[in-house]
TrEMBL record:
<dbReference type="Pfam" id="PF00443">
    <property type="entry name" value="UCH"/>
</dbReference>
<dbReference type="InterPro" id="IPR001394">
    <property type="entry name" value="Peptidase_C19_UCH"/>
</dbReference>
<dbReference type="InterPro" id="IPR038765">
    <property type="entry name" value="Papain-like_cys_pep_sf"/>
</dbReference>
<dbReference type="GO" id="GO:0016579">
    <property type="term" value="P:protein deubiquitination"/>
</dbReference>
<dbReference type="InterPro" id="IPR028889">
    <property type="entry name" value="USP"/>
</dbReference>
<dbReference type="GO" id="GO:0004843">
    <property type="term" value="F:cysteine-type deubiquitinase activity"/>
</dbReference>
<protein>
    <recommendedName>
        <fullName>USP domain-containing protein</fullName>
    </recommendedName>
</protein>
<feature type="domain" description="USP">
    <location>
        <begin position="1"/>
        <end position="155"/>
    </location>
</feature>
Length: 157
């Protein structure tokens, strides 16, 4: 995933664009009233203010300055994986498809964690399979609610 950020130093009003290429970009899913889709939509145009002890160095004027960073665009890979951690199942009402920028993604994998036990679901050629220890069950459509890991694949129409 690539984030294209614009950093504007408030003191000199200089703009600096940066591209942050990451194969693993760790983003915190907020523990509030936002749905998973609303959170994804907020990734673009997100503004962060860095001030006081957290101010940033401006490469143009050579001074530290309060700065605002705006995520202007997100460019993504073929596969998106959203990891939620096993302490909480925060991903609720996960959609079957998501849009990020101009890209559309369809869910193809889900992992559910429940008290020291993992159950994995994969979708191949439109058919869901459940992997539960040594048992594989075909045509078992998962409930993506309360998943702790989701996998999406880019679709091409």
């Amino acid at each position: 995933m690539f984030l294209i950020n614009k950093n504007q130093a408030i003191i000199c009003e200089n703009n600096h664009r940066s591209e942050l290429p990451e194969h693993q970009l760790f983003l915190t899913i907020p523990d509030n009233e936002l749905s998973f889709v609303e959170w994804l939509n907020q990734l673009e145009n997100e503004k962060k203010l860095f001030s006081g002890d957290n101010n940033l160095f401006c490469e143009t004027c050579g001074q530290r300055s309060d700065s605002e960073i705006v995520t202007e665009r997100i460019e993504t890979h073929e596969i998106l994986a959203f990891y939620n951690g096993k302490s909480k199942n925060l991903i609720e009402n996960a959609p079957n498809s998501v849009s990020l920028g101009e890209n559309q993604y369809e869910i193809f994998g889900i992992i559910v964690y429940s008290g020291r036990h993992y159950i994995a679901y994969t979708k191949e050629e439109g058919i869901w399979n459940e992997y539960n220890d040594n048992e594989v069950t075909a045509n078992k459509h998962p409930n993506p609610n309360n998943s702790y890991m989701l996998f999406y694949k880019k679709t091409y129409n």
